[in-house]
Amino acid sequence: MDSTCRRTLPSLLLAFVLPVLLLLPTLPARAQDADEDGTLDPANPVTARRLEAALAGLEERVRLLDRMTADAVRAYRRAAIARNDALQELVQARDGLDREATRVRDLTLDRLEELLKETGEAEARYRGLEREAARRLGDLRRLVAEREALVERIADLRARMPLREEVLTGEWEVTWMPAGVTGTFYLEQSGTLVTGQYRLGPLGSGSLQGTFVGGKLHLQRIDAERGRDAELSGVLDPDGKRIRGTWQSFELVQGGIPRGQWVARRVR
Question: Which residues face 193 on adjacent strands?
Answer without folding.
Answer: 190, 211
